[in-house]
Design a protein that fits this description.
There is one protein chain. By secondary structure, the chain is mostly helical. The protein is 58% helix and 2% strand. The protein has one domain. It is built from 14 helices and two strands. The chain has a two-stranded antiparallel sheet. A hairpin with a 6-residue loop joins strand 1 and strand 2. The N and C termini lie close together (5 Å).
Length: 298
């Protein structure tokens, strides 16, 4: 077996590779934002420390780049990005208007919530669209993602590393979740975004976004949808959403990769180009679909 551990954080032999490189990660990313918004302190941190409504894509781009670097980047790239992220988080604060308390953005409880909401959302959406994983592979995915959590400052032993541990975490943490005005505004925005001035030219195409937002919303846990109540619980909607995810993935994959790549920022595109060069240096010649790449022999 060819080892890529020295050149790639999570190589083609890992479950993380199969999940993270899926074309439907954009839907998974929107779902993650919706789920994260249920934690009041986390949501206030986003609103108080960013211009989310004016730069709606920037948070998704930044998250996409972090996920890409900590999955298919080199350990050195992941360490460098992690250091930058931790440095930014270290100086940011969150003011709680209910208690008057000031929180640090890098409090472990907040970092863990963001991590768990993200990695569980990725897995939920990608398996719903049809990626078949055994229970053992699902546990392996969560275990691999424990290492990813260290880049934001968490300790591996404090992060859920299996499906059972993740389910237990959500069951225990649900009591901390509720909808605040910022949460509701975020979900409304993700379902039907107000176009910022620089993107007003895309307004006529905004209707094409709603299916993405709706699919992300309906893949949330039932308890999360009940908290929001943003869209009706129509009988039979779940099979339609699952079918929609599968059809959406077919449509996305029909778009040439060079065009799809334009949806990401230059740093992420360069990372993927570097990845191809590193794989070829190991004698691996990936063709159309990196997600299906396997390393089985030297």
């Amino acid at each position: 077996m060819v080892s890529t551990r020295e050149t790639i954080v999570h190589g083609p032999e890992t479950v993380s590779w199969r999940v993270i490189l899926d074309p439907l990660m954009v839907v998974a990313g929107v779902r993650a934002l919706m789920l994260q918004a249920l934690h009041p302190t986390t949501m206030r941190g986003v609103w108080q420390n960013s211009n989310f409504l004016e730069e709606p894509l920037q948070r998704l781009f930044n998250t996409a780049n972090f996920v890409a670097v900590t999955t298919v980047g080199t350990p050195e790239q992941a360490d460098a990005l992690g250091a930058r992220v931790r440095a930014v988080h270290k100086r940011l604060r969150i003011k709680d208007p209910d208690t008057g308390r000031t929180h640090r953005v890098d409090e472990p409880e907040l970092l863990l919530w963001v991590h768990c909401a993200e990695v569980s959302s990725y897995l939920e959406v990608i398996t719903r669209r049809g990626l078949k994983l055994t229970p053992e592979e699902i546990d392996a995915y969560y275990d691999e993602q424990r290492h990813t959590a260290t880049y934001v400052g968490l300790h591996e032993e404090d992060v859920p590393g299996s499906a059972a541990e993740m389910a237990e975490y959500f069951e225990q943490f649900r009591k901390e979740l509720r909808v605040i005005p910022e949460s509701r505004a975020t979900v409304r925005f993700l379902l039907w975004p107000k176009m910022p001035r620089k993107l007003r030219f895309l307004a006529p195409f905004k209707f094409m976004w709603f299916p993405i937002g709706a699919m992300a919303y309906y893949t949330l846990p039932k308890w999360a949808r009940e908290l929001y109540g943003a869209l009706p619980e129509v009988p039979g909607v779940q099979p339609v959403v699952t079918l929609g995810l599968k059809l959406n993935r077919i449509g996305v994959r029909a778009v040439p990769e060079e065009i799809r790549a334009r949806a990401f920022n230059p740093e992420t595109r360069k990372l993927m180009d570097d990845l191809l060069h590193r794989l070829r240096a190991h004698g691996i010649k990936p063709r159309r679909n990196l997600q299906k790449l396997r390393i089985t022999s030297s």
